[in-house]
Design a protein that fits this description.
- With about 210 residues, the chain is an alpha/beta fold.
- About 50% of the residues lie in helices and about 20% in strands.
- The strands form two sheets. A five-stranded parallel sheet has the order 3-2-1-6-7. It has a two-stranded antiparallel sheet with strand order 4-5.
Length: about 210
């Protein structure tokens, strides 16, 4: 049943390739570990698995394990400050339209929350559903990610559904806009009332 005032309006944006023009995770990992560190971790992980999502989580975990969470957060905030130049102006304009309409805006991304959250704060985005790195009681990063999985494909929809239920209640009607650019966004856009493909996918989908 819808609220008396009508359905809640929510806009969900993928980040890499959608709100941003390019991948942002590799440059961040290079920032904290250098190219030799990233290439070495990648080689070690790929000897164990070639599964894309599993390999990504393992590579990130290898590079951040044992770092102080405060140090990683400092890197994340500094890196977020460099990302304004890689944002798509037309998608930022669309984000601002949603905000002007009073819609709730959320990032749903396979990117790391350690830099997406400070960027979201700068943009006035309401929340971030990304890959969150866990820390132990002593404040050291464990190398594990919250939920144990990459936030891609069906995981995006599962995360968003859980977030909507927590934020609005399971019986609240939501009108959902979603923006994505890759195969990892297909389920998210299929779930939305108003899906928008971005970049090359937009041309293939005739939008």
């Amino acid at each position: 049943m819808a609220d008396a005032d009508g359905p809640r309006a929510v806009a969900a944006f993928d980040f890499d390739g959608t709100l941003s023009q390019r991948d942002t995770m590799v440059p961040f990992l290079v920032r904290i570990a250098g190219w030799p560190g990233l290439l070495g971790a990648t080689a070690r992980v790929l000897r164990r698995t070639r599964r894309r999502d599993e390999a990504k989580v393992a590579i990130v975990g290898h590079l951040v394990k044992g770092m102080a969470a405060d140090e990683l957060a400092t890197h994340g905030r500094a890196y977020a400050g460099t990302l304004a130049d890689v944002l798509r102006p037309e998608l930022v304009e669309r984000l601002r339209w949603h905000q002007g309409e009073g819609h709730t805006v959320v990032l749903v991304s396979a990117g790391l929350e350690v830099y997406l959250r400070p960027l979201a704060d700068d943009l006035g985005i309401d929340d971030v559903l990304g890959v969150a790195l866990l820390e132990d009681e002593s404040g050291m990063v464990t190398g594990a990610v919250d939920g144990g999985a990459n936030n891609r494909g069906p995981h995006k929809v599962a995360r968003l559904r859980a977030w909507l239920d927590e934020r609005y209640g399971p019986n609240t009607t939501v009108e959902l806009w979603a923006y994505g650019d890759s195969s990892g966004d297909e389920e998210l856009l299929a779930y939305a009332d108003h899906p928008t493909w971005v970049g090359r996918r937009s041309r293939r989908n005739g939008t």
